[in-house]
Backbone:
């Protein structure tokens, strides 16, 4: 037996449908760069998210309300899967059969538990009581007593783990058998084995239910041999009545025959696993809201599908990215229940991969339910954020973390070293955008627009790295490019600027597409023989509206006619080398008209769009040939915003 996230996981992603009950609406929020999580946990108050980074030997703490990284705590092992109970953080060591018990707030070590056997794969527990369970890559299940901090091997079989959130007395385990296994040994079953269903759809994952006895042991209560095809994760609904497995192949009838099935997430009765009680949309991993009757399915890191955990009816779907990392590593509700947090990759060339903080537009009833559970909430989401419109479930102490999904862990752990350093002082929450500003960036570190001493949005002096993490108003970040350098000089504003060399298309989208009048402003500095072309677009080339450039010592604007080659280039103003200018484009997507002002020029001449976009949502800078350009202080503004 071996770890289950194999090549089969990636093969079936092509089959997992992106389509949902309704066409997905765009959703955006703050994005922070983050390497793949080894595990995660969120505190019971719904504010602090802790993410393990195995290859760095760190725990990263995030304030989900402020949408900021708070601190990084170095640990003396490669941290992997995590579970939180009370003030104790249980962390499995990647590649080792060891669980470390840490202080949840500080990350300081308390105890080290050697389980024996293969590497720890998953951890799960009730947020306030009962044993902490650990599984291995070979389906062993261990029970850890929080009082004695000792681990015991049980008779249970499992890889994925989920604890009943209502009482903590029941453990559900799941196994996705690898390709070379047709039977798995399970104690307490008639015959001692569970037969693996196999047909053209693939091998079926199975779910087992175990109840805890007074001695900490586990007794098999029921089994479901056909839970999913190519399973990714296991979850129990907040009311403890349904158990489900997300998967790449959905649910299919037994190999011997049957009807129904498809790319769905089948639900089974937790009292009697043999009973199938419904189906939800498909996904790679899921999370449940700790207060509201709301679930979310992550679909390949691209789409978030909301659903009702009681009825399993699909709600709205929201598009996060056109393409992303599909691994089921982190999705949860956070910020006192006002946001969804999603990790969908760390590809430096994809500006929409990272750790997303996505706002929920809650109803008044929703906010009242959350305030009853958590106290004062963060400010309400803006009007254009997606509406949730769900009914609150019964109140009480907010539920703790849901069992995270963690990657396989084949490497050994390093030996212990000294205690981690004391945590840093948390940063202040990010300031809201100034009045009249839709989005802005200054390419700065610690001084100027969007600057921060604790979390600088740009790594000044570096190229081929993403920039703009945490900046409000944008959809994603600037992508990494060898042709893009965040420089310390020359600058027009703050302590940084952007320098582009050929050949590069450098694009960033803002969060709110503009369908009417607005202003796009940028400071530019053109070296001798330099130049640039700037496009305001709807998604791509054929969505270009305003189009201007610097060439042959002049700023020029294209008076378009709706075609690829049509239109007339018009000189707007001269451009001297090595001098900063402010270009201000005022455009109206409804009228398909725009004007261009350079410094003190009035920009009275009106130009037509190049094509006919319905809205404008991104800015694109093209540098080619022998050109180069410095850019600074890019601002997308309401039409009446001050200069």
Residues:
């Amino acid at each position: 037996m071996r770890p289950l996230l194999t090549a089969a996981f990636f093969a079936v992603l092509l089959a997992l449908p992106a389509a949902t009950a309704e066409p997905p609406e765009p959703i955006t929020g703050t994005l922070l760069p983050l390497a793949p999580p080894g595990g995660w946990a969120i505190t019971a108050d719904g504010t602090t998210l802790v993410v393990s980074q195995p290859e760095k030997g760190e725990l990263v703490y995030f304030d989900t309300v402020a949408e900021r990284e708070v601190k990084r705590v170095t640990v003396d092992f490669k941290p992997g899967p995590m579970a939180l109970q009370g003030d104790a953080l249980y962390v499995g060591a990647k590649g080792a059969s060891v669980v470390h018990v840490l202080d949840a707030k500080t990350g300081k070590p308390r105890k080290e538990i050697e389980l024996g056997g293969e590497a720890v794969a998953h951890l799960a527990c009730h947020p306030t009581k009962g044993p902490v369970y650990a599984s291995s890559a070979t389906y062993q299940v261990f029970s850890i007593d929080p009082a004695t901090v000792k681990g015991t091997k049980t008779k249970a079989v499992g890889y994925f783990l989920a604890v009943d959130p209502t009482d903590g007395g029941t453990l559900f385990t799941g196994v996705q058998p690898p390709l070379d296994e047709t039977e798995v040994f399970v104690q307490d079953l008639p015959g001692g084995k569970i037969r693996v269903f196999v047909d053209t759809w693939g091998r079926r994952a199975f779910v087992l239910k175990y109840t805890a006895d007074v001695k900490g042991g586990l007794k098999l209560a029921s089994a479901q041999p056909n839970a999913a095809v190519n399973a990714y994760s296991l979850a129990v609904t907040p009311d403890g009545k349904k158990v489900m497995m997300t998967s790449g192949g959905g649910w299919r009838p037994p190999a011997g025959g049957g009807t129904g099935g498809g790319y769905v997430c089948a639900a089974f009765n937790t009292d009697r696993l043999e009973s199938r009680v419904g189906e939800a949309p498909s996904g790679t991993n899921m999370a449940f809201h700790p207060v509201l009757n709301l679930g979310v399915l992550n679909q390949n890191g691209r789409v978030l599908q909301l659903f009702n955990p009681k009825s399993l009816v699909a709600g709205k779907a929201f598009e996060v990215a056109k393409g992303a990392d599909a691994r089921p590593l982190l999705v949860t509700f956070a910020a006192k229940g006002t946001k969804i947090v999603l990790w969908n990759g760390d590809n430096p060339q994809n500006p929409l991969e990272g750790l997303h903080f996505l706002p929920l537009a809650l109803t008044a009833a929703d906010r009242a339910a959350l305030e009853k559970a958590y106290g004062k909430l963060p400010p309400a989401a803006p009007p254009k954020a997606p509406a949730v419109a769900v009914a609150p479930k019964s109140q009480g102490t907010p539920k703790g973390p849901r069992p995270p999904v963690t990657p396989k862990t084949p490497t050994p752990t390093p030996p212990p070293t000294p205690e981690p350093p004391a945590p840093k002082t948390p940063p202040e929450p990010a300031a809201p955008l100034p009045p009249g500003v839709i989005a802005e960036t200054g390419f700065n570190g610690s001084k100027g627009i969007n600057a921060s001493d604790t979390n600088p949005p740009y790594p000044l002096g570096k190229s081929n790295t993403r920039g703009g993490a945490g900046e409000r108003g944008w959809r994603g970040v600037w992508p990494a490019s060898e042709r893009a350098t965040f420089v310390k000089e020359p600058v027009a504003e703050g302590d940084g600027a952007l320098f582009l060399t050929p050949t590069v298309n450098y694009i960033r989208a803002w969060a709110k597409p503009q369908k009417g009048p607005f202003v796009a402003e940028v400071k530019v500095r053109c070296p001798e023989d330099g130049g640039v072309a700037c496009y305001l677009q709807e998604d791509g080339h054929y969505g270009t509206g305003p189009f201007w450039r610097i060439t042959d010592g002049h700023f020029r604007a294209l008076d378009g006619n709706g075609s690829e080659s049509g239109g007339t280039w018009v000189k707007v103003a001269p451009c001297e080398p090595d001098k900063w200018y402010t270009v201000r484009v005022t455009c109206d997507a409804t009228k398909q008209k725009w004007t261009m002002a350079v410094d003190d020029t009035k920009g009275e001449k009106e130009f037509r769009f190049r094509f006919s976009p319905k809205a404008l949502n991104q800015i694109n800078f093209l540098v080619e040939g022998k050109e180069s350009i410095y850019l600074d202080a890019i601002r997308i503004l309401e039409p009446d915003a001050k200069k």
